[in-house]
Amino acid sequence: MEVGEVVQELLNSDKTAIAINPGFGPEGFFNINRSVVVSWGIMAFLMILTLIMTAGMRVDHISKRQLIIETAVVKLKNLIGDGLGPEAKEYTLWITTLLIYLGFSNLVGLLGITPPTMDLSVTLSLALMSIILVQIVSIRKHGGIGWLKSFTKPIAVNLPMNILELGIKPLSLCMRLFGNILAATVIMDMLKAVVPVFLPAVFCLYFDFFDGLLQAYVFVFLTSLYIKEAVE
Fold it and tell me: 3-state class of 27 per DSSP?
């Protein structure tokens, strides 16, 4: 099986999880994709996991479980906060939440579930949310007039390029995440088709685990970088 055939099979496969036919509108317009259902499942899992992990927490005489959880949360927040810089640390929780969601979304491939980040509409939505947040941060920091003036920096002739960059950034975020997750899935499918079972399992540790976490971090790192630039 050629790479192109695998890609076409993955992209052209039926992505519908719940078919809804209200009797009006274009056929399939109201259908709910598998990526949406998987995202709901991930969010529900994270909410339940959070409730379980935070149950019984105390201010003093804390348990070892609470100590481990608090240490992990503090280190993660410090990692994100350092990337944002002191002027944008208020957005740490948002970026941390995004990192956790993306990390779990990319890791569901280990369970044989198609990652929601392999759906272009999901990665595009996340990229647009990030870029809209960056513009809101800039407006809050510099005001509406200051935000508009930023498109003329460092000199006025850069205006067309700065406007173009506004569209390129979410496209770059979207396609980088989508392309890497798609490529990892294609490679794993090719390996499963041509080599023994144990070898794909070894490569799975990289493509489904390490690379999945790496792509989640790259996405939030670039978002943090854009936010840091917006408050300078």
Answer: coil
Query: ∠ CA(214), CA(218), CA(219), 5° rounding?
Result: 120
0.70 exceeded by pTM? yes
Q: Is 18 helix (H, G, I), strand (E, B) or coil?
A: strand
* CB crowding 54-70: b at 16 or more within 10 Å, else e: eeeeeeeeeeeebeebe
What Rg value do the Cα atoms of the chain yield, rounded?
Answer: 21
What is Dmax (Cα atoms) for the chain?
62
pLDDT score for 148: 85
Q: Report H helices in the chain.
A: 3-12, 34-54, 64-84, 92-107, 120-149, 159-194, 198-204, 211-230
pLDDT tens digits for 177-209?
A: 888 888 777 777 676 666 666 655 566 666 677
Q: Which residue has the tokens 């995440």?
A: 177
Q: In the predicted model, what is the mean pLDDT of residues 153-158?
A: 80
Q: How far apart are CA 101 and CA 50, in angstroms?
A: 13
Question: What gap in Å lies between CA 130 and CA 135, rounded to an integer?
Answer: 9
- Chain CA centroid to CA 43, Å: 13
